[in-house]
Amino acid sequence: MSQHHHQRHSGVVSSSPVDTTLVGFCPTFKKFKRNDDECRAFVKRVIMSRFFKIIMISTVTSNAFFMALWTSYDIRYRLFRLLEFSEIFFVSICTSELSMKVYVDPINYWKNGYNLLDVIIIIIMFLPYALRQLMGKQFTYLYIADGVQSLRILKLIGYSQGIRTLITAVGQTVYTVASVLLLLFLLMYIFAILGFCLFGSPDKGDHDNWGNLAAAFFTLFSLATDSIRKFERELMLEQQEMLMGEKQVILQRQQEEISRLMHIQKNADCTSFSELVENFKKTLSHTDPMVLDDFGTSLPFIDIYFSTLDYQDTTVHKLQELYYEIVHVLSLMLEDLPQEKPQSLEKVDEK
Predict the structure, then answer these.
(1) CB distance 261 to 276 below 8 Å
(2) How wide is the angle at C-alpha 92 spanned by C-alphas 87 and 95, nearest 5°?
(3) What angle do CA 26, 29, 30 make, to 5 degrees?
(4) Which residue, 262, 275, 322, 341, could crosslink 345 as a Cys pair with Cβ 3.0–4.6 Å?
(5) Is residue 40 within 8 Å of residue 104, measured between CB atoms?
(6) 254 vs 268: CA distance, rounded Å
(7) Cα separation of 297 and 236, whole Å?
C-alpha cells in the first residue's frame, strides 16, 4: 500500500510544471463561487432574446452593405465619415457581444465552435489597425488584411438555424468525400509510379510527361479529363449520325411518295400535279396526313423540318438528363429520411 502510494506520488512529482499548475488550478476554480448570479441571469436573458438577435443580424448586414460601398473610391471619398462611424459602431457591438457571452459563461464559451469563429472574426477586425500601428500605412501586405475583413459576414452563421443545419450536414459528409479523394490519390499514385517505370526512361522514354512523379501525376490527370471529353464528343457524334440516318430515311420516303404521285399523274386524267394533289385530298379523311404540292415538298421546308427535328431531339435529351438528376436527388433525400417504425413494433417497445 505504501509502495503504491509512493509510486503515485513520484508520478505527480515527475510531471510537467504545466500539468501541476492545471491540477492545482482546476479544483481551486471549481470551489470558487460567483456572487453575481442575478446579473449573469439578466445578461443571459438579454443575449438569448429575440430583440438582441435582430440587432446583431441588422448590424452585420448593414456593415456588409457599407463594405460593398467601401469598394468604390468615389463613394469612399464622399462618405468617409459615415463609413468610419459604421466601422466603429460594428466593432463596438461585436466586442460588447463577446464580453457579455464570456461574462455569462467564461468556461463553456470556448467549447462552442461558433463562438470560436466569432473570436477569430474579432481578431481579424483588429488586424488592420494593429498592422498600421506596427508596420505603418505603407505596409506591403496591408491590402490583404483589409480584404479578409469580408469574413466578418460569417457572424450571421451563429444566428441562422438553417445555415447551421446545412453546415452540420456537410460536415457529416466530409469523411465520405475525404475517403473518395484518398482512394483517388492512391490510384493515381500507383499508376504514376507504374507510368514512370514504363515510360519515364531518360534514354528512350517520354521524359517530359513521365520523367518524374509530378509530371506523371499531371499526365494522368490530363488523360483522365481528356477521356471524359472524348466520350462526350463520341456520344455527340453518335447522336448526329443517328439524326442523319433518320433524315435520309425521311427524305427517301418523301422522294418515293413524290415519284409515286408523278407516276399516277401520267396514268390519270390530270392536267397538272396540283390537280392530282387536289383530287388526292378529296379521298382523305380528317385524320389522314395531306401532301402539299408547293410547301411540303419544297427544299426550304425540308431544311426547316430537319432543323426542327434536331432541336426536338436535343430538347428531349436534355429533359431526360434533368429527369435522371431529379430522380437521383430524390433517392438521396429518401435515404436520408428517418424510417418510421410500424405501429406493432412501437406498441412492443412501449410495453
Answers:
(1) yes
(2) 125
(3) 85
(4) 341
(5) yes
(6) 21
(7) 30
Instruction: For 304, list phi and psi in degrees, rounded to 5.
Output: -65, -40
From the list 287, 291, 286, the residue with the least C-alpha distance to 259 is 291
- Residue 151 grid cell: 469574413
Q: Would you state the cell numbers that stand for residue 158, as one nine-digit string?
A: 451563429
Closest CA to 222 of 237, 210, 233, 212: 210
Q: Specify the amino acid at residue 14.
A: S
CA-to-CA dists, residue 242 to 279, 301, 307, 316, angstroms: 36, 21, 14, 14
Q: How far apart are CA 315 and CA 321, in angstroms?
A: 10
- Beta-carbon contacts of 219 under 8 Å, excluding residues fewer than 6 positions away, are 195, 209, 210
Cβ(261)–Cβ(254) below 8 Å: no
Q: Residue 276: exposed, middle, or buried by beta-carbon count in 10 A (0-12, 13-18, 19+)?
A: buried
Written as tens digits, the pLDDT of the chain (351 aa) is 444 444 443 333 344 444 444 444 455 545 556 777 888 899 999 999 999 999 999 999 999 999 888 888 888 888 889 988 998 999 999 999 999 999 998 888 898 888 898 999 999 888 888 888 888 877 878 888 888 888 888 888 888 888 888 888 888 888 888 888 899 889 889 988 888 888 887 777 777 788 888 888 888 887 777 766 666 777 788 888 888 888 788 777 777 777 776 676 666 655 566 666 666 666 655 554 544 444 455 566 666 777 787 788 888 888 888 888 888 778 877 777 766 555 554 554 555
Identify the helix (H) or strand (E) that includes residue 49: none
DSSP state of 340: P
217 neighbors 188 (Cβ within 8 angstroms): yes
Cα torsion 99, 105, 106, 111: sign: negative
The DSSP secondary-structure symbol of 79 reads T
- Residue closest to 46 by CA, chosen among 97, 108, 105, 110: 97
Cα separation, 296 vs 258, in Å, equals 11
How big, in percent rounded to 5, are the helix, strand and coil portions of the chain?
85, 0, 15
